[in-house]
Fold this sequence. Notes:
By secondary structure, chain A is mainly β. Chain A contains no helices and eleven strands. Chain B is built from no helices and eleven strands.
Amino acid sequence: KNEVEQSPQNLTAQEGEFITINCSYSVGISALHWLQQHPGGGIVSLFMLSSGKKKHGRLIATINIQEKHSSLHITASHPRDSAVYICAVRGRGTYKYIFGTGTRLKVLA
Amino acid sequence: DTAVSQTPKYLVTQMGNDKSIKCEQNLGHDTMYWYKQDSKKFLKIMFSYNNKELIINETVPNRFSPKSPDKAHLNLHINSLELGDSAVYFCASSRMTTVTYEQYFGPGTRLTVT
Lengths: 109, 114
């Protein structure tokens, strides 16, 4: 079992829908990172969280340290949001990130 | 003005060859990483350097050898390439802080071993 689990693995939504992607982890962490990988392959950092909530445009990320859980929300989804979303955690006291297996999102027009 | 760049973007080579992938960052970061992404899109760390010092060295074959000539560069040399080495290799950089840091990724190098 991976130390970082994401759900769902695949998600298809209609344009305009509210989307939630979940990330659960089993290790103590100092930070959690949400990444976006477009079909072209490039990886972009969306958020880095150590507590609470962050918002950027239509994207919202939350983290609950006690429950070892984070969510990424996309409001008013658009076909250009179609990508793989990856959760990564930095273990407490370590330098490295552990990655989830990713959630493949497809938003239909 | 690319932040993290990698060369080459694509690399097709035959089994047994030796190849190198180069990475450069112009962000002034002090830490650089190499990741391997397999066909299932799973990212896994291979190496990390902080101020030219190796700080992460995961269980990878010793055919893979990272080299960091300075803080802005981290190269990956692979000897005796095997079919299973085919993957996308990503370089990333960050500024090491006492609490958290954000990573910036390069565009990736797609390595195909035939």
